[in-house]
Amino acid sequence: MTKPGVLIRGIGADERAAWEPLWQGYLEFYSASQAKEATDETWRRIHDAREPMFALGAYVDGKLLGIVHYLFHRSFWTTGDYCYLQDLFVAKDTRGLGLGRALIEAVYAKAKEAGASRVHWLTQDHNATARLLYDNIADRSGFIQYRKIF
To answer: Which CATH class is domain 6-137?
Structure first.
């Protein structure tokens, strides 16, 4: 349940100027960077109806203060898709308002609506503040991620 004055909705194609500082804040939090072309492609994909990629925003009094990106993908384990919550970020000065929880719960609702059998995500083990929330709204899988970057 979202607090009064908080609206969770899709981020409009005309809202890039409000979305991009939050996206850059997310990248900075993880000490990451992204080429302009990749950011452009991300923005294009989340507004392309043929893509399984989506973005929701948390708005307080009409101002975008938090974002979540999620996508649907197939699984060998179920007949329904899985939903991967890939990125979640709330403006630093507005943390504690419940926006992160509201964004995750909105993804849960979208996943159920789409017939997905689960929502899953990753976080770094040192992200203690976020993990306090995650430990209250989801179960830890016990898996360790391995990757090879090309």
So the answer is: alpha beta
CA distance 81 to 119: 10
pTM, to two decimals: 0.92
The residue extents of the domains of the chain are 6-137
| pLDDT tens, position by position, 16-60 | 999 999 999 999 999 999 999 999 999 999 999 999 999 999 999
